[in-house]
């Protein structure tokens, strides 16, 4: 199962990079992005169904039902929390003034880096949980604190100009003033220079590292099965790029979604802390997380519709 899934991920990345134009600069249309969002959701649903079918025949109906439900719940949680990445992507691309036709390739490399990074973090997390059961409560407390912090700071926009990692990169590298197509490095007068595109890639990878610290502990509230944790994470990451291109122009309309994501973190963290006294069925977690997100989206759209546009003000 592990080998089959890893082969599937490699095949999809190769298909995107070498067959579908992932290595060529072009602006992603809403139609193309929407098609990929639907495709990745269908692939995740198909995978969950195949997982159920395989386990039903080899391990029994009860285990098949539980593992399939854990996968879909984990996928929903990871997909939900990864939406926060979308807001950060918008901020990074806006700050660096990255042309739309150059965004697709840098996000593809960002996805590849995120897969490798999360694979290592998931394996480390699974080992910690298996060796030290109390780590789950540390994860729970961390998620509650992070969720409360998100609620308090939801309306504050980070200033990338003051970002210590970006300032360090600028202080230790020769950087060209402008883009050189999709190139990350160029040679000028025999010297190697990084382009702003490399800084964009590094900021995207750094942002995913930060969000992985939140999202990976969250799924341990649902399951500690490394295969379920890994596959649900990867499906969410693979679909994030298409989701960004679909919703980037409408990010401001979903301003209440950040509050919903914060509540999801608080709920999941509280669920982990309450495990010694109360075990919540996985289907309840699925329903509560889905309800929080749906309500956040509906309220965001309603409030956005009531606010006058800039042209009307």
Explain how this protein is built:
- The chain is an all-alpha fold and about 325 residues long.
- It has one domain (about 30-305).
- The protein is built from ten helices and two strands, in the order H-H-H-H-H-H-E-E-H-H-H-H.
- A hairpin with a 2-residue loop joins strand 1 (about 185-190) and strand 2.
- The longest helix has about 35 residues, at about 60-95.
Ranges with pLDDT <50 over ≥5 residues? 309-313
What share of residues are in beta strands?
A: under 5%
What radius of gyration results from the CA coordinates?
20 Å
- What about the largest sheet? 2 strands, antiparallel
- The number of domains is 1
The percent of residues in helical segments reads over 70%
Distinct helical segment count:
10
**How many β strands by DSSP?**
2
> Could you state the order of secondary-structure elements as H and E?
HHHHHHEEHHHH
Give the distance, in angstroms, between the N- and C-terminal Cα atoms: 57 Å
Strand order, main sheet: write it out. 1-2
Q: Helix- and strand-based class?
A: mainly alpha
Shape by Cα distribution: globular
Q: What's the mean pLDDT score? A: 81
Features:
313 residues; two-stranded antiparallel sheet; 10 helices
Q: Topology of this structure?
A:
Elements: H1 2-19, H2 30-58, H3 61-96, H4 103-131, H5 135-153, H6 164-172, E1 185-188, E2 191-194, H7 196-219, H8 226-247, H9 257-273, H10 282-306
Antiparallel strand pairs: 1-2
Helix pairs in contact: 2-3, 2-8, 3-7, 3-8, 3-9, 3-10, 4-7, 4-8, 5-9, 9-10
In short:
By secondary structure, the chain is mainly alpha-helical. The chain has helices spanning 2-19, 30-58, 61-96, 103-131, 135-153, 164-172, 196-219, 226-247, 257-273, 282-306, and strands at residues 185-188, 191-194.
